[in-house]
Amino acid sequence: MSNTCIRVLADPVQIKQCKEELQQLESPLNVLTRMFNLAGNATRFKILYLLHREGKMCPCDLSDILEISVGGISQHLRKLKDGGIIRDKKVGQTVFYSIVEENAQIIKPVLKSLSREKETVS
Questions:
Q1: 3-state helix, strand, coil in the chain (%, to 5)
Q2: How many domains are contained in the chain?
Q3: Which structural domain range is residue 48 located in?
Q4: Is residue 65 included in any domain, yes or no?
Q5: CATH code for position 95
Q6: Which residues of 1-112 form beta strands (DSSP E)?
Q7: Is 30 contained in some domain?
Q8: Is residue 70 in a domain?
C-alpha cells in the first residue's frame, strides 16, 4: 500500500473554507500550540497535573513529590510562568503557583482524563 495522494479532482470550496477557518483560528491555535509545547515535557506535565489537583503548590512541595531539586523545579515553573500557563502568588516567604484560569479551561479535560485513568487502575 502506498502513502501517496493521487487526487483526481480538488474540491476548491473545501480548500478555501479550510484555509479561511485556519486564518480565523490563528491566534487560538498559537496559544494552544505554545501551551502544549510547554506541557509536552513530562516533568512540566506532572507539575500541571499536581497544580490542577491541588489548586496551588510551592516549589518545595513539588520538589519533594517529584524528587527533583528545587532549582530544577524552579526552572520548569519559570518556563510555565513565562509561557503564561501558570502564575505565582507570594504569601509571606513562600511562593505558590497555580494554573491561570483561562488555561485551566483548555487543559482541564486532559488532566481530568488522568484522574479517570487513576480511578480505573485503582
A1: 65, 10, 20
A2: 1
A3: 12-121
A4: yes
A5: 1.10.10.10
A6: 86-91, 94-99
A7: yes
A8: yes
- What amino acid is encoded at 35 in this protein? M
Mean residue pLDDT of the chain comes to: 86
DSSP string, 23-86: HHTHHHHHHHHHHHHHHTSHHHHHHHHHHHHHS-B-HHHHHHHHT--HHHHHHHHHHHHHTTSE
Q: Is 2 part of any domain?
A: no
What does the pLDDT read at residue 87?
96
Closest CA to 86 of 78, 98, 75, 74: 98
Q: Residue 97: how many CB atoms within 10 A of its CB?
A: 23
Q: Which has the closest alpha carbon to 36: 45, 24, 23?
A: 45
CB atoms within 10 A of CB 50: 18
Q: How far is residue 5 CA from its own chain's centroid?
A: 34
Look up residue 111 and give its three cell numbers: 488532566
The answer to whether residue 72 scores a pLDDT higher than 60 is: yes
Task: Provide the pLDDT for residue 18.
Answer: 92
